[in-house]
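Record now logged underneath.
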Amino acid sequence: MGEAKRRKETMGERYGQEEKISPWLPITKNQSQQFMEITTKVSWIGIGLLVAVWITIRFIGPGFGWWQID
């Protein structure tokens, strides 16, 4: 017997429906995946902004004479 048939027998009517991650969290696997995609994109944007600020503070500001780094 294949895994899909075994799962269908054990899950019964719930087979093919979205599963919750845990009984105490009202979040499905699909919602969890979407959350991970969004937070990953936001993290990369934050890293990019951090690099841009660092370059501005370290190179651009002193280059234009806005401030000096000792």
